[in-house]
User: What shape does this take?
Amino acid sequence: MRHGATEEQIEKLLDYESGPFGDAEKVALELAKRLTIAPRTVDDELMARLRAHWNDGEIVEIAAMAGMFNYLNRIAESFDIEPTKPGEGL
Assistant: This one.
């Protein structure tokens, strides 16, 4: 929410296809989902839909963010690390 997401968007994130997102956001979320679940399904058709809204640099940034969060989640789950609340931590 600090970066502009609404409460409804956060609630509907896993159902982004029918959630309160624009076309650009939906295709970015689809990329993140595919990179998480089945990276080899990122195909020319998806790339064409991405390029209708995002330039190549932005697509790389979306992919990098999805990859970073996948990595962090796997480390946290592997070591049973509980996330901190905003303002907590070191």
